[in-house]
Structure formats: structure tokens, C-alpha cells
Amino acid sequence: MINFRYHIVSLMAVFLALAVGIAVGVSLSPSVDESILTQAQQDRDQVTALRAELDRRTRLDTYRSAYDQRTASLVLAGQLPEYRVAVVAMPDAPGSVVTAVSDAVATAGGRVVSEVKVASEVADPTQAAAVREAVAPLAVPGLTDAMSPATKVGWSLARAFTSKQMTTRDDYARSVGTTLTAAGLIDVRDDVDDYAQLVVVVTAATTTQPVDAAVTTADVELQTALKEQGGTADAPGVVVAGPNSAGLTGTDVGAIRATSPSASELSTVDVADLPSGVVTTVLAGKEQVLGRQGHYGALARADDALPTLPIR
Fold first, then answer.
1. What is the CA radius of gyration of the chain?
2. In terms of Cα–Cα distance, which of 249, 267, 256 is closest to 205?
3. Is the pTM of the predicted complex or chain greater than 0.70?
4. Per its UniProt record, what InterPro entries does this chain match (predicted)?
């Protein structure tokens, strides 16, 4: 990720190279104009100033990270008392963010009952026929032929792993999960055999390469289906956590915020790659379970930095 620190280091390298070149030139040509010597000294002074600025910013980053981590447990305490949570990792979701979210759920008093990794084939337009065929044996209520492959997978995932009203997964839910796993559409790690009342979806980080719009659209279809399958009464809370502090272009979070009805149903967090963003993700999750939603973080179309505290 190219940031301010990157530019400082680059400038330092340029000034150092210039200073060395001037010094060598001076040593070879005693008659070099005095102004060049002056410029060389100015360049060395600039390098020193930039190095000091880089050190200052590094210390500030260290402070912010330490502060966020040490206050997280105080902010999170009791936010998800015995809440059952499923963590769904989209393709290319950073493992460190998935782990951080799971740990934050535990700190907040919740239980991660399922961890699901979605295969890249689900959103791949070239694999649409194969995905449809894999989901065809499932007779999930409400599943229709008109649905996109990604919507069908999201709808089936919701039936297999989520319920706001029931606790223990039934035999049919387990069979749906087994079918999706056997087809290679998901990879599942179940800690306990309970339904989740809250789903946290961790998405891919921001990239410098263009993202296929069809892939992003399919991702949003799956995430929206997780919320819609259960209907109004049994719909789980769904938060889409994007490790996207570098920007929203081509990201799931950016697409959700610009898409209807996803924008009014799902909650999003755009800074889940920061410790404070992980805390915000958990707070947004509690808000979702209570029947409210919002978009949080630092980037476009965010409603606020985080939900209003305390969350009741």
C-alpha cells in the first residue's frame, strides 16, 4: 500500500543520491561553484528533516495501535453476551482480519459457532453453470431458478448456518452445509453445532489492480442473500467488514453502499484492517441483531465513524 511514509522514504532516497553525486563531483572538480556545495548541504538537511518526520509518524502509528488494542477490551466488554456468531471469509479475505474479528467476538462475550470460507468459484462468471449445478440438489425454501448462482449460495448458506430464533442446527441445515462443502463451494470449520444469529463477513483488502465488476456484484448478491433468506422475523444480523482503509474502489463495501437494497439492509465497516475498525465491526454487529443498521468507518458513504454508544 502506497502511503505518506512510502513517499517520505522515496524522497529521502532521492536526496541522498543527489547529495552523494554532488559530493563526488566536488571531489573531482575543485573549481565547482560554491552554490553547488550549498545545495548539497541543503539536501542533507532536507534528508535529516524527512527522517525525523518519518520517525515521528512511526511513533504516532505505534501509539495509535497500542491505544486501540488496550482500550478495545473495555469498549467491547459485554457487547455480545452469549451471541452466536458466524464468521464468513470471502475469497482473498486476510486471515489476520478474520482472526482479529473472531478474537473480538470472544472479548465481547460472544461465541463463534461457525467459520466459513467461500470459494472463489462462487463469484466467477465462468463458473456460473457449475455453481448452479452444484446447488441444484438443494431444496431450500424460497430458492428459485431466477436467482443468480451467488444468490443461491448465499441463500443456502443462510439456511445452513443462521437463525435468529432457533439455537441448535437441524438435520436439514447440516445436510445443506455438507452439500455445499462437498461441491467445493465453501470450506467450513464448526466450533459448535449451533445456528448463528449474527454473521460477520470479512471481505478482500483494497487492491491496486482493477476488480471485475461481475465478481463484486456476485459477492454483494451472496452477502445480501445471507440477510434476506431468513425473512423479517428470523433474519440474522449481517455486517460486511472490509479491510479497506486504503480506499473503496472495486471493494464489496463500496459496492454495497452504492447498491439497493443492500445499502439499507446490511451494515458495513470500511476500516476492518485497523484495530479500531475491528471494534467497530463488533459494535455494528450488536446493532444489527437489535434490528438496526448503518455504514461506519472513514470513507465514502459512511454514516458515522462508529455506532452511537451505548448500543441499546
1. 25
2. 249
3. yes
4. MctB (IPR021522)
The mean pLDDT value for 43-51 works out to: 85
Q: In what order do the strands lie in the sheet with 237-241?
A: 186-190, 111-118, 84-89, 198-202, 237-241, 267-269, 295-296
Q: Which three cell numbers mark 47? A: 534528508
8 A C-beta contact, residue 51 and residue 12:
yes
Q: Measured between alpha carbons, how far is 247 from 228 in angstroms, rounded to an integer? A: 28
Q: Using an 8 Å Cβ cutoff, are 189 and 181 in contact?
A: no
The closest alpha carbon to 201, from 135, 167, 150, 246, belongs to 150
- For the stretch 193-233, pLDDT in tens is 899 999 999 999 999 888 999 999 999 999 999 999 877 78
Pair 160, 174: CB distance under 8 Å? yes
- Residues 124/194, Cβ–Cβ less than 8 Å: no
Share of the chain above pLDDT 90, in %: 68
Per-residue pLDDT, 47: 86
DSSP per-residue codes, 178-231: HHHHHTTSEEEEESSSB-BSEEEEE-PPP-SSPPPHHHHHHHHHHHHHHHHTTH
The Cα–Cα gap between 281 and 296 comes to 8
